[in-house]
Amino acid sequence: MNLLIMGLPGAGKGTQAAKIVERFGVAHISTGDMFRAAMANQTEMGKLAKSYIDKGELVPDEVTNGIVKERLAQTDIAEKGFLLDGYPRTIEQAYALDQTLAELNITLDGVINIEVNPDSLLERLSGRIIHKVTGETFHKVFNPPAGDYNEDDYYQREDDKPETVKRRLDVNIAQGEPILAHYREKNLVHDIQGNQEIDSVFADVEKVISSLK
């Protein structure tokens, strides 16, 4: 079973990915893990990636694509299948993945897309506040401090501020839409409603994956 998982930040993609790996025994391939492994093993692409990272530069697509290809060519993939998480991030990477899979004679069985309304995600991601004195973390909606608290006693990290979160979501939506459209043309996308309890989301994911086997 060879799968790809997609979803906006905060949609619960990481949680569902972990459950899929545990339930179906596929190899979890995330870009971060791949980069670390390639650099640790000093593969050709790993050394190339390190040369950019050490200079504080972005790793070019051709290197990222090469690292993915190295990983997909390993023997455990043929035995277990994979769940690709965090790649492709751009439509160009999606085209490169098509080519890689064709060269390795691997078929992509499905794309699991965890759908959550961006407005809900904005509330979910921008509600985090931190107590200035204790450093304790709360959420304005889902885990507020007890009683009538004074907002002046709390602060938000730049990453958690609504305007920053909205920018991040907008970028992810703009990048993700062409990728989803590309896979929809291939009839590979399975939309899962992510605004449910975690176990309910996974029950829907499980149904889809079981139907693909």
TrEMBL record:
Matching Gene3D superfamilies: P-loop containing nucleotide triphosphate hydrolases
GO CC terms in record: cytoplasm
Binding site for ATP: 10-15, 128, 137-138, 196
Pfam families assigned: ADK
CDD domains listed in its UniProt record: ADK (cd01428)
Pathway per the UniProt entry: Purine metabolism; AMP biosynthesis via salvage pathway; AMP from ADP: step 1/1
Gene Ontology MF terms: AMP kinase activity; ATP binding
GO annotation, biological process: AMP salvage
Compartments, record wording: Cytoplasm
PROSITE patterns referenced in this protein's UniProt entry, alphabetically: ADENYLATE_KINASE
EC numbers on record: 2.7.4.3
Sequence positions that bind AMP: 31, 36, 57-59, 86-89, 93, 157, 168
Reactions catalysed according to its record: AMP + ATP = 2 ADP
Positions of region (NMP): 30-59
Keywords of this entry: ATP-binding, Cytoplasm, Kinase, Nucleotide biosynthesis, Nucleotide-binding, Transferase
Domain remark text: Consists of three domains, a large central CORE domain and two small peripheral domains, NMPbind and LID, which undergo movements during catalysis. The LID domain closes over the site of phosphoryl transfer upon ATP binding. Assembling and dissambling the active center during each catalytic cycle provides an effective means to prevent ATP hydrolysis.
Function: Catalyzes the reversible transfer of the terminal phosphate group between ATP and AMP. Plays an important role in cellular energy homeostasis and in adenine nucleotide metabolism.
Similarity comment: Belongs to the adenylate kinase family.
NCBIfam families from the UniProt entry: adk, PRK00279.1-2, PRK00279.1-3, PRK00279.1-4
Entry-linked HAMAP family: Adenylate_kinase_Adk (MF_00235)
Subunit-structure text: Monomer.
Protein name: Adenylate kinase
Organism placement in taxonomy: Bacteria, Bacillati, Bacillota, Bacilli, Lactobacillales
